[in-house]
Inverse folding.
C-alpha cells in the first residue's frame, strides 16, 4: 500500500520563523540565511514566502519569492526542504505554488540562480520550464558558480 502524505502550503507567518530557521540551518549549514533576513522578508513579501507543513504542523520546507525593482521580473530566491521530507513532492509543490503566486503578480519572467552541480534542483526547475540564460563563476564569492535560469511567461 502506498503511503500518502498530506502537504499543506500556505504563507509563512511570524510564529513559523523559528521552524523555518531550523530547516534552513539543517539544509544549508553555515551558508544559511539568518533570522534577521527571514524576518524582514516577511515584511517585504508576506505573500511570496510560502511554507509546506505536514499534518502534525511541522515545517517540511519553504520557498521564497520576490519581485524585482523592475516589477515585471519575479524571482525565486530560495527553496529548501528538510532532510526528513525530501523526495515526497514537497519541493515540486512549493515551486508550483510560488510560480502561481508570481504569475498572479503579472510578471513577464521568473528568474533564479542555482549551483549547476545541484542536479536535483536543476532537474526540478527544468521540468518547470526554466532554461539557463547566464552563468557567473563568482556569483557569491570567488569560485562559487551559479547559473541563472529563466522561465518566460
Ligand atoms: C532541491 C530540493 C528542494 C528538492 O526537494 P524535494 O522535496 O525532495 O523535491 P521533490 O520531492 O518534489 O522531488 C523533485 C524530484 O527530485 C528528485 N529527488 C529529490 N531528492 C532526490 C535525491 N536525494 N536523489 C535523487 N533524486 C531526488 C525526486 O525523485 C523528484 O524527481 P521526479 O519528479 O522525477 O520524481 C531539496 O532536495 C533541497 O532542499 N535541497 C537542498 C537545497 C537546494 O538545493 N535548494 C534549491 C537551491 S536553488
Amino acid at each position: 500500500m502506498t503511503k500518502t502524505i498530506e502537504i499543506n502550503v500556505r504563507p509563512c507567518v511570524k510564529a513559523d520563523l523559528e521552524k523555518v530557521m531550523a530547516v534552513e540551518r539543517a539544509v544549508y549549514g553555515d551558508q544559511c540565511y539568518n533570522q534577521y533576513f527571514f524576518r524582514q522578508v516577511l515584511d517585504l513579501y508576506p505573500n511570496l514566502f510560502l511554507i509546506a507543513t505536514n499534518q502534525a504542523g511541522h515545517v517540511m520546507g519553504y520557498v521564497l519569492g520576490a519581485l524585482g525593482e523592475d516589477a515585471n521580473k519575479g524571482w525565486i530566491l530560495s527553496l529548501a526542504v528538510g532532510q526528513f521530507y525530501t523526495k515526497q513532492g514537497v519541493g515540486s509543490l512549493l515551486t508550483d505554488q510560488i510560480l502561481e503566486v508570481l504569475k498572479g503578480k503579472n510578471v513577464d519572467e521568473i528568474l533564479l540562480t542555482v549551483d549547476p552541480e545541484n542536479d536535483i534542483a536543476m532537474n526540478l526547475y527544468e521540468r518547470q520550464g526554466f532554461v539557463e540564460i547566464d552563468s557567473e563563476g563568482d556569483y557569491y564569492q570567488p569560485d562559487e558558480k551559479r547559473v541563472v535560469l529563466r522561465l518566460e511567461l
Observations:
- The mean pLDDT is 96.
